[in-house]
Amino acid sequence: MMGVYEIINLENGRSYVGSSHDIKKRWNLHVWNLRKGKHVNRHLQSAWRKWGEGAFSFCVLEIVGRREDLRKREQPWLDLNFEADDNPYNIARDATASMKGAIFTEEDRKRRSDSAKKRPPVSEETRKKLSEAGRGRKHTEATKKKIGDGNRGKKLSAEQIENLRRINTGRVPSEETREKLRIASSKYRHSEESKRKISIGNKGQKRTKEARQRMSAAQRGKKLSEEHKKKISEGGKGRIVTAETRQKISAIHKGKVVSEETRKKIGDASRGRKRSEESRRKQSESTKGKALSEEHKQSLSDASRKPYPAFIHRETGEIIPAGENLSKLCRERGFTKGSLGRVANRTRSVYRGWVLFKGEEDK
């Protein structure tokens, strides 16, 4: 027999309403669990212990012809039960969802939490089945909001954080997942408080060499928008780099060889940029008293090295042979590099009597 049933406490009038496709079998299951003290409904179980089995009566409220109509026919009787009694034995108010509308006390929550902690850990096989079952499932916007509201402000314990870290270690998200995360995070803006917390959380954190390589590979070839560049620039303004940080940056770049392509990019980016008086003063102060290594001196010399043609003095006839380092020549002779350079480039005819040496006819 299929239909809606009721379990009534004859001592106080409180009742429990349910439905089943086999009412007799369902009643026997209720009685078996109550006698064993294992019934899932703790209110009904507590009353059974207090009043005894003889205080309860079982009756059929409605016979239902089709199985798919069971929940629909149970709901009116359930509503009537809650209207007649503010505190019936039913926990949930919705017949289609066993826990929908249920209100749990702190004691209930603690009992459920303690019970869950005693469960054995979920096996890898079970995890895989759960993952496959949930794959492709899409939450509605209302569900997402409920999940968000439920987790907001919740603080994870150190144990939970460690478990999450262990689970996610070595997990590589697919390109599709990365794109979804990027789109989702692009709509989110951290508050100043959140930024401060993230900063404090990352302070002193040391990333492994493997983690650094992954981060570097992820950023390689990525082009930043002008808006993004502007934000990075504004974020770095006024930031004071400590001596310790400078040493770390220096150690990281030591021995690193910059490609010609990178040099060209840096040069193009810096060309035409005007530094403020404050920036110049800071640069001057940072280099004051700094002893350059011989290697550094040599690299600077090589960078400024510019070949030059032969020169001859019109009055004395002295000849300066062609060479490889115009800067060095100007330092040794006390010449102005720019002026002599223009003579070499044929944009100026003479500098302090020195002209280009064309050959034997100039002697």
Give a description of the structure.
- Among the domains are: 3-114, GIY-YIG endonuclease, CATH 3.40.1440.10; 302-362, Arc Repressor Mutant, subunit A, CATH 1.10.10.
- Helices cover 52% and strands 8% of the residues.
- It has helices at 23-36, 42-51, 70-84, 106-117, 124-134, 141-151, 158-168, 175-186, 192-202, 209-219, 226-236, 243-253, 260-270, 277-287, 294-304, 326-333, 337-344, and strands spanning 3-9, 15-20, 56-63, 311-313, 319-320, 354-356.
- The strands form 2 sheets. The chain has a 3-stranded antiparallel β-sheet.
- The protein is rod-shaped.
What fold name goes in the CATH topology slot of the domain at 3-114?
Answer: GIY-YIG endonuclease
Oligomer: single chain
Shape: rod-shaped
Average predicted local confidence, pLDDT: 83
Overall number of strands: 6
The number of helices is 17
Per CATH, the architecture of the domain at 3-114 is 3-Layer(aba) Sandwich
- What is the SS-derived class? mainly alpha
Q: Write out the strand line-up for the largest beta sheet, numbering strands in chain order.
A: 2-1-3
Rg over C-alpha atoms, rounded to the nearest angstrom:
41 Å
Helix proportion range: 40-55%
Mind telling me the CATH superfamily name of the domain at 3-114?
A: GIY-YIG endonuclease
Order of helices and strands: EEHHEHHHHHHHHHHHHHEEHHE
Contiguous runs where pLDDT drops below 50 for at least 5 residues: none
In the CATH scheme, the class of the domain at 3-114 would be Alpha Beta
